[in-house]
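Extended Data, panel c. Modelled sequence:
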Amino acid sequence: MRFVPPMAALSNTKVTFDGDEAARRRPMKTTIDSLRGLGG
């Protein structure tokens, strides 16, 4: 799951992530915050 947000940041369209309950518990905050900081 960690490789998908950086790939989505390359998209020109809005991307929304969702997943099952186990996926929602995964620590993704650092990854998402880093991508947002880079303009993704």
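The mean pLDDT is 84. This feature is highlighted in the accompanying rendering.
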